[in-house]
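task queued by scheduler; priority normal; single chain, no ligands, no partner chains; default sampling; output format set to structure tokens
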Amino acid sequence: MILNNKINVFLIVILTFTILSASAQKKDLTYYQCAFFESYRVGNMAPWPGLIAEMEKVKSTDPAWQTEMVKAMYGLVGYQLGAKNKNLAKIYVNKADVYIDKLLKLNPGNAYLHSLLGAFYGYKIALAFYKAPFFGPKSMYHIEKSIELDPSEPGGYIEKANSLMYRPAAFGGDKKEGLAYYKKALRLMESRKDQKCNWQEMLLRAFILKGLLETDQAAEAKSFRVSMQNDYGPMDWVDQFVGANLIEGK
């Protein structure tokens, strides 16, 4: 009887371990991509730090896994800077630095990684504007390098557009040119459709909507907003992202 009880306990432990292992295995890249996507879609970034921490705990050496983490850090830093949380943003900028450095040493010809590095140099300028003369050229070098390495990679065009959209006109900023690069990046993303849950495409479409309004293209902006709602739902956060004054003014 005692032996049978021990066997039963052993079987329960094995079964529990198997279930937990199977549950853990379900958290593949697609799981995290869709978790980030759904959180972004409803305008709730609160889960992102926890999701990133989960991915880090796996300690995966898979470049695709690490790149997805850096991509998530890129999104989170942008959000934190927009929310004026520079201290939190800096934490993830420093984390991303380590991963990007390792990833580029393994694959120096990866266009998307160069676009991310260019973006993070831009973030460093946002954290300390006095460093712009040093980080600005580095940012543009990696953005242009991304486009040169792979003209079909959207990342380089997104970051080139960001630079043009947010740089003062006196320093070469041009919203209409930036909007054209955003649209080019979206066309490239839509032609690939290589990811089930792509929060970056959602963000890119928000950038385009904002750019349309900022360049006085109200009719196209209205139509574009409808298409976003058809694909993603209400997305109430977009009004705040774009700027309620722009929405109301159009």
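post-processing summary
- Residues 6-25 have pLDDT under 50 and may be disordered.
- The chain has 13 helices and no strands.
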